[in-house]
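Case study 2.
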Amino acid sequence: MTTALLVIDAQQSFLQRESWTAASDPKVAATIARLVDHVRDRGDRVVWVLHTEPGSGTVFDPERGFVEFMDGLSPAEGEPVRTKTVHNAFTDTDLAEVLADWGVEEVTVCGVRTEQCCETTARVASDLGFKVTFAVDATATEPIGAPGSPAGRPLAEVLADPRTLLPEDIITRTVYALSGRFADVRTVAEIIG
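Prediction:
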């Protein structure tokens, strides 16, 4: 079976945000790099995806210079890089076609944010017929304020709010949502063997 690793949004943009200091794993790039090395050693494919919000003025606006891979991560020659403007890596890219051209039947998803672009990509991949592995510890996320909370609050205020969803709770929810439905949720150690 031909497989591919999808590295989703492991980019400098997140490191610019105060909330990244409270991320589930601020050094997730090292775990992703281990997985990338394993996949390359097996001779499988790697696809890199970056999230962009052109014209937004945010850290995801390419004009700001942060839509670059996290330190320690970089595509090898011949590994495609796709940019997206939506949550999943399929809707506004040619990712499905790239994978089909390679004969890929199984994808492994890793990157940032666990419950957002990574989970959404895993769900869409499953709906498209791919067998999906979700490399849970090769993903990271940040605290999420309660719906209706004021935007732009300082991190200390977000963390002090008892309604804030913390990274460990977000990851647990993603594991429950994906397991047995959309993906086989595994750790990098389990994947590497």
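The mean pLDDT is 97.
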